[in-house]
Amino acid sequence: MNYDPNTGQPIYNNQQPTQVQQSSTNGFAIAGLIVSIFVSAIIGLILSIIGLSKSKTTNSGKGLAIAGIIISILKLIFMVLAFLLLGGLFSLLFDSITHQEEYCSKAYECGTPNSSGYADCKYKSEKGWDITISCPSKYIKKTTEPTTEPTTKNVNNTGKAKVYELEDVGMDYYADVLYLENNKLYGHITEHFPRKIATDSTVNGEKVNLLVTNVESVFTPEYGQAGAQDVIFVDLAGKTYKLHNTEGTTGSALGFKEITTAKNIKDVYSLVAGDAVEYVIINDKNQIVFGSGNYYKDYIYFDKKNNRGENLLGTDVYKLELANTEKVNEEFIKAIFDVYVNGKKQDNQVSVETNDGAELFEIPYCEVGSEVIVGKVC
């Protein structure tokens, strides 16, 4: 190796010494990560982007900068989603406040008013959601007044409450007298109820028990050969239920089960059907939507007394038109019907033999896959 005689420094023969690049602290990357986590996603994103750019010259902080960018973007996405959700809730709340009178007038299942006279009520939104809204007592009274007069048997309206007395025909009723007052259904509990129960209310001076709340109307139609009576009630939401009021019914004593096919009920009444009495449930379109015979078999009906033969099965309308009757013997006749499905007459007629004095004709049907075959027993 040669040395410069003037300086004494080594001479590298035209070769430059190797330069080692030194790393320096990338303050923007560090700041961007910290700010994105603890302070502001937007500022953190800006600092992290600068830090990522600076990492090329400082040879450090690239990973921190990328982490800061990812965290900032995720926080921004979350903020946007939260803003949209809160905006929707605020809009719903504002809409409920500004339309309180309209919604409270449609409310059902109202609770007990508080000391300020407000109660939590539910109403159905246009999309079918159950929305809870606080309603003043004046609207609660408006929504809890029955809009229809039920057609029932043995109704006494002389007191404050509507009274429904079930006839004593040897049935082991759990409640033999029912009272409807302020949309609450009460019952006088009999000794047939499976356990001892203390009365909890007084209606028309009688000691009774509260059975169901939010009841709009009650029907007590007759059925069977002995003249027993069912208890059918409609709640404020328009749903129809049968009360479990005898030992022979399935379900807990004085519980109830929804009759899902019965919507928008107009009337419930009994008719002579063969050697017994059955009842039918009628909707606001004068269609039969359920009959007591449906507890045991699948039937559609023709009400000869009222010339009513439209039956609603799901979304389809099955109509029976009486085409002819033939005498079978002194007691029985054969009734022959034309069948229409959604207004279209079917090729085949159906028939049923029953007592000559029958008012209600029961025609069996069977569902085979998606097809309903009228006149066939499953």
Produce the secondary structure layout.
Blueprint: E1 2-3, E2 10-11, H1 27-38, H2 41-58, H3 62-98, H4 100-104, E3 118-124, E4 130-136, H5 137-143, E5 155-156, E6 162-165, E7 175-181, E8 184-189, E9 201-203, E10 206-213, E11 215-219, E12 222-223, E13 228-229, E14 232-235, E15 239-243, E16 256-263, E17 265-273, E18 276-283, E19 288-291, E20 299-303, E21 310-313, E22 316-327, E23 332-341, E24 344-345, E25 350-355, E26 360-368, E27 371-374
Outline the structure in words.
This protein has a six-stranded antiparallel sheet, with no helix packed on it. Strands 21, 22, 23, 24 and 25 form a five-stranded antiparallel sheet that branches. Strands 11-14-15-16 form a four-stranded antiparallel sheet, with no helix packed on it. Strand 18 and strand 19 (288-291) form a beta hairpin. It is elongated, with a radius of gyration of 38 Å. It has 378 residues and is α+β, with helices and mostly antiparallel strands. The chain is built from five helices and 27 strands. The model is unreliable at 141-151 (pLDDT under 50). The longest helix has 37 residues, at 62-98. Helix 1 (27-38) runs parallel beside helix 3 (62-98) and helix 2 packs antiparallel against helix 3. Helix content is 21%, strand content 39%. The protein has helices at 27-38, 41-58, 62-98, 100-104, 137-143; strands spanning 2-3, 10-11, 118-124, 130-136, 155-156, 162-165, 175-181, 184-189, 201-203, 206-213, 215-219, 222-223, 228-229, 232-235, 239-243, 256-263, 265-273, 276-283, 288-291, 299-303, 310-313, 316-327, 332-341, 344-345, 350-355, 360-368, 371-374.
